[in-house]
Amino acid sequence: MAVRRLLGCVPQQLSIEAALTGRENVAWFARLFDVPRAQRGARVADALDAMGLTEGADRLVGTYSGGMVRRLELAQALVNRPALFVLVEPTIGLDPIARDGVWRRVEGLRAQTGMTVLLTTHYMEEAQALCDRIALMHHGTIRAQGTPAQLRDGLGGGATLEDVFREYTGSGRDGEDAKGGLGEIRRTRRDAARVR
Prior knowledge:
The chain is of the alpha/beta class. It has helices at about 1-5, 20-30, 35-50, 65-80, 95-115, 125-130, 150-155, 160-170, 180-195, and strands at about 5-10, 85-90, 115-120, 135-140, 140-145. The protein has two domains: about 1-120, 3-Layer(aba) Sandwich (Rossmann fold); about 135-175, no CATH class.
């Protein structure tokens, strides 16, 4: 329980319940994180306010836009005031305005609270803009790590993080093309749908 109180996580798969209101979703997570009962109401309100969701907090989540759903998931993960905030591809499928809004809020909270943010993303421009250090993984193995500048400079000649990503995780490396294909993605989504 002590470790759970230190962590906040926004998974890639949806973690909200559409039949509940935004407030009810965040309150549910406050209970899961064992936020003391006397503090729950205030913590829920603070998390909703930090994500700009106070106005829509009492609406059913099924009526929320994609950006609002992602911000609600951030509120859920922040309700316990974590020391480590894990974000698993949190902006996938969001339009550029919604993506910018999510990142502005995460950056503001990081600056305000000093929490550590661990981000997984396939968007190299996001990694470039948001990360102090980057580790590039391919099939569970770290292939390169360092600051964005160190990684780019390692390739030389004005390389971008996209270039670095291709260099270390590109197609055909070690005969690994068959892994991680469409079939695997479909199995993952099918498994996730059964859990809901």
